[in-house]
Amino acid sequence: MNSDSLILSQLSETGVLRLTLNDESRRNALSEAMLNQLQKVISDVSEDPQVRVVILAASGPAFCAGHNLKEMTAGRAAEDQGRAYFARIMQLCSSVMQSIVNCPKPIIAEVKGIATAAGCQLVASCDLAVASTEAKFSTPGVHIGLFCSTPMVALSRNLSNKHAMEMLLLGDMVSAERAAEMGLVNRVVPEGVLQQVTQDMADRIASKSSKTLAIGKRAFYVQREMSLSDAYEYASAVMVDNMLESDAQEGIRAFMEKREPKWQD
After folding, report:
1. Which whole-number Å values give the CA distances from 85 to 32, 89, 97, 201, in the listed order?
2. Among 155, 173, 175, 174, which Cα is nearest to 165's?
3. How confident is the prediction for the chain on average, in pLDDT?
4. pLDDT at 201 exceeding the cut of 80
5. What angle (nearest 5°) sits at the alpha carbon of residue 259, between those of residues 255 and 260?
6. Which residues form the signal peptide (predicted)?
């Protein structure tokens, strides 16, 4: 993509696609245009056999400042005071977040700077997250009379209830270290090594069978919404089907023969 695009992309030899939010002047806010581009690129990634893992990063000092409030405020000029427009934007944003979860490729957020409101939701929606020591997170809607209800969906599925409510009710900035304690991010590293650490993690995942990763990612999110007994029944069926896949047969054979597996994906 060219440098004027809202999202830049770069594919490594290992099949790791780096997507970079590229609207630095607006702190990479999730404008309608940004959401539409993100929706399209995630859809394309899902069908691209060359892509094995995705890193979602951002240019500039902010990862993502949430929705574009100037754009949202302009929507109030409509006769319905913006109701239809707000509904469309919320549906679009929710669709993007679900696309990330439903994408068969693992997606890792690489966070430096701030990730606030829907930007924090974006981090929580990714499968993994690595943050720099300078990163900060918040759901500050309560400060402006707007509870972060849609970010709440992603937060409540990543954090304990009390940690999620702490962020939602107080709206305070949370340090990267505190975010790791809460379970919002996996690792916190110095900014100077952030990209390398994230890339190394992505490369390790990319070395696995992409078919196996897709099976596992889908199963994780499906079983999470089930009761314990239903989850075990579902996961057991997934394991049976997985055992019959060619990559599982090759992987087990390679382990027993003490050699590297050759994935067919």
Report:
1. 10, 6, 19, 39
2. 155
3. 96
4. yes
5. 90
6. none
High-pLDDT (> 90) share of the chain, %: 94
Burial 125-140 (b: 16+ CB within 10 A, else e): bbbbbbbbebbbbbbb
Tokens found for residue 2:
């060219």
Q: What CATH number matches the domain at 7-206, 3.90.226.10, 3.40.50.450, 1.10.8.100, 3.40.50.300?
A: 3.90.226.10
- Looking at CATH, the fold of the domain delimited by 210-256 is given as Lyase 2-enoyl-coa Hydratase; Chain  A, domain 2 (1.10.12)
Q: Burial of 197 by CB count in 10 Å (0-12 exposed, 13-18 middle, 19+ buried)?
A: middle
CA distance 151 to 145: 15
Instruction: With a cut of 90, say whether residue 265 has pLDDT above it.
Output: no
Structure tokens belonging to residue 158: 């990543």
Query: Closest Cα partner for 134 from 173, 99, 169, 161?
Result: 173
Q: Quick one: residue 258, left, alpha or beta (phi over 0 = left, psi -120 to 50 = alpha)?
A: left
**Which single residue is written with the structure tokens 């440098």?**
3
Mean pLDDT of 30-54: 97
Percentage of the chain beyond pLDDT 70 is 98
Which two tokens mark 108?
Answer: 């890792």
d(CA 209, CA 167): 37
**DSSP one-letter string for 41-64:** HHHHHHH-TT--EEEEEESSSEEE
Question: Is 89 within 8 Å of 72 (Cβ atoms)?
Answer: yes
Of the pLDDT bands very low, low, confident and very high (cuts 50, 70, 90), residue 4 is low
Residue entry with tokens 């000092």: 61
